[in-house]
Amino acid sequence: MRFGMVHRVMTDALAALGVIALVASGQFNRYVSWAILISLGLALVVRESWQRHPALRHLDTGILLAVIAVQVVRIVATDASVLDVLVEFAAALQIIRLATRKGAAHDQQVIVLALLHLIAGTVLGGGMGYGLCFLGVLVVAPGALVLSHLRREVEGNYRQGARDRTGLPVDVPRILRSRRVVGRSFLAVTCLLSVPIFVFTALLFVIFPRVGLSLLLLNRGHTGRMIGFSGKVDLGAVGVLRSDPKLAMRVEIPELPEPPPPRLTMHLRGTALDAYDGRTWTQSETFKRPTESDGGLVPIERYPDPAVDPVMRIDLEPIDPPVIFLPPNATGLRLKHRGQLGVDANAMAQRGPEGELRYQPTDDRGLVYDVFLSRKRSPTFQRLPAAERRRYLDLPRDLPSRVVELAQQWTQGVDRPADRARAIQEHLRTEYRYDLASPSGADPQPLDHFLFESKRGHCEFYSTAMAILLRAVDVPTRNVTGFVGGTYNRFGRFYAVRQGDAHSWVEVYLDGEGWMTFDPTPPADAAPKSELVGAWAYLRDFIEATSQRWDRHVVGYDLNQQVGLLQTLTSRYRRSGSSSDLSLSRPRILAVAAVALALGGGLLYWRFRRTRRGREERRADAGRTPSAILATALYEGLEAAMLVQGVPRPPSLPPLRHAEALELADHPLAREILTLTQVYLRARFGGATLTEDDSRDFERRVKALRGAERRARAASDSGLAASP
After folding, report:
1. CA 566/CA 14 separation, integer angstroms
2. Gyration radius (Cα) of the chain, Å
3. Keywords assigned by UniProt (predicted)?
4. Who contacts 398 (Cβ-Cβ below 8 Å, separation ≥6)?
5. Per-residue pLDDT averaged across 482-504, rounded?
6. Does residue 327 register a pLDDT over 70?
7. CA distance linking residue 634 with residue 680, whole number of Å
8. Which of 149, 213, 246, 466 is the most buried (most CB within 10 A)?
9. What percent of the chain has pLDDT over 90?
10. What is the spatial distance between Cα 354 and Cα 279, in angstroms, rounded to a whole number?
């Protein structure tokens, strides 16, 4: 492996990892991220010969001034964030340096910028993408730093006019092309330095006391928010989300059966709407007020009992508006921002109309919260004041009369409100077809067209139809939007809820029971749509589970987890000390044995390769006689003398051919060079023996060759001095 190539590859890898860590933080929008990545790729493929071209001497300065001017204009003329502009400038500075670098001094600047980018990525993001970049930097950085320092020393000596042992100037290009400076052992050792560095860093991370991220004033995510679940829903514009696979939340369910169901319907409620004008659902009230809170617990209709109430944990991605999603039997919450270490007492929730809850986002990292569930599976909302009952029975003024007649027809002979709801739900499920591209959305009366003409529609048509038909037979209802459920992640043991699982259903008020959930959409069409089997499903589940563990145990590692870890280790130590049975469980024994075998096998293989390489080198040396080895050393001195005389031998030209070419060109030293070359060839390949006298004679004649130019120059100078 050539020294210069290895150094360039490792430096480029370190720079790329730093820039990717910035991009992975989510600080840039999609277009800026792609522009940075494409520019980075172009900068990495620029050839060194182009970088040293005289016409491009000041290119880096010109580009840098242009970038500064553009960023200043963005700050002054637009509403661009100063932080965004600074981070983009840092990435651009690295790309400019990569494209215009000249020598080891610039490579060291590249390394410093890469490390600064890694630090910035820690503050700005800290997600799974950053974690992979961090591990890559740990592996690459030691080798890149050592090689950069070595190249800097070589180029520094060259500029100072240093000479080698033969008295010749240091040939830097030849050193960079050399395959002897950097070998596999060197790379292996430098990369393995990442192991103790990682262990030391991990120990500091686990042991050092946790502090809040509020100390980092720049700590805010920029991951992009989901949009939806506002207080207004147009009946003709809903349904396109069913194909969006982006993760919306991770839900951990208590007391799951074994095996857990691959898909689970949860009806996670986000927003409820009570007013329908014939096409659009809205909220007739718009108030917002802070909820009560006690020690981080937020009640819904009563305070939860953390000691006995089952707990569902939800890891919510950022969403706008910042709605909190609840299952139908929630009693209370415990809030925590994803980017906040420890319990955040300021993560207050706001209560809105129709039981809607929202949180106050401090950044764009989403929210992690625990939902306490009713042990009796009682509905979350149980009250409807008599004064408010009327608005849940209101019908649009221009509602066609045949809609009311259809409701009466479907509920004929049914008296109980719950039975009426089940009857209408069954008719909708069995007599209508699910269709995301329903033609009813373009009709002036979309509900009437859906019920009597197309009989095709998405979930919003089904929920609207059920809500209005029940109101027509004097049953209070409201329309609800949220997520229907999720698919089970086999690695993380949580249910992944995606944006495509957005759904709409109905809440029906039943006297004595409360607001009950009904879903008129056919179950097969309302169920989560994510794939469950196949290579892509396994890879997707693994990546999402790994990302969850990273967010929870690294990004979200707080004082509570630190104390819990210490207590766990202490209790295990006490149990092992007080118990006479110190044996490990069988799985742990197998795991330890597997790791030991892997390490032992790797060590034996490395030892075998090293021994084999040593044997091959000794065998190669054994095939060369002492005279051949001596002849090689003597010919190196002859090559140095030819270089002094201005007739160096090209690496691609054999020694004998080079000497014969000099003789054909009538060079004054050709005869002596040819004679010495023949001596070298007879001893090196012909089996001839070189005595000590032969060696001294060879060295004397080489010295005479090197002094031929000095004697000629001295004679010329003396002739000039003697002339009048």
Report:
1. 35
2. 39
3. Membrane, Transmembrane, Transmembrane helix
4. 278, 445
5. 90
6. yes
7. 8
8. 466
9. 20
10. 20
Residues 6 or more apart whose Cβ sits within 8 Å of residue 493? 252, 260
Residue 518 near residue 425 (C-beta atoms within 8 A): yes
Which secondary structure element, helix H or strand E, spans residue 319, and what is its range?
strand 319-320
3-state secondary structure (DSSP) of residue 438:
coil
Q: Report the Cα 707 to chain-centroid distance in Å.
A: 64
Q: State the Cα–Cα distance between residues 225 and 163, nearest whole angstrom.
A: 62
CB neighbour list of residue 580: distance below 8 Å, 6 or more residues apart:
none
The tokens for 298 are: 């937020």
User: Within 10 A of 568 (CB to CB), how many other CB atoms are there?
Assistant: 10
Residue-wise pLDDT for 33-81, tens only, equals 888 889 889 888 887 776 666 766 677 788 888 888 888 888 888 777 7
DSSP state of 294: B
Euclidean distance between CA atoms 427 and 639, whole angstroms: 98
Confidence of residue 560 (pLDDT cuts 50, 70, 90): low
The token pair at 522 is 């056919």
Exposed, middle or buried: residue 2 (CB in 10 Å: 0-12, 13-18, 19+)? Answer: middle
State the Cα–Cα distance between residues 328 and 90, nearest whole angstrom. 48
Residues in the chain: 724
Place of tokens 């390394």: 111
Q: Which two tokens stand for residue 485?
A: 């459920």
DSSP readout, 472-498?
A: HTT--EEEEEEEEEEEEETTTTEEEEE
Give the amino acid at 194.
Answer: S
Please list the residues that pair with 502 across neighbouring strands.
483
Give the Cα separation of 174 and 158 in Å (integer): 12
State the burial class of residue 236 (Cβ atoms within 10 Å of its Cβ: 0-12, 13-18, 19+).
middle
Report the distance separating Cα 644 and Cα 647, nearest Å.
8
Give the CA distances from residue 597 to residues 192, 588, 590, 606, in Å, rounded to whole numbers and listed in that order: 19, 14, 10, 14
Which alpha helices (DSSP H) does 504-558 contain, by range? 523-526, 535-550
Question: Is 478:290 a contact under the CB 8 Å cutoff?
Answer: no
CA dihedral 574, 578, 583, 588 (to 10 degrees): -20
Pairwise CA distance, residues 257 & 253, whole Å: 10
Give the torsion through C-alpha atoms of 369, 371, 372, 373, to 10 deg: -170
Residue owning tokens 């070595």: 150
DSSP tag of 681? H
In the chain, what percentage of residues exceed pLDDT 70? 81
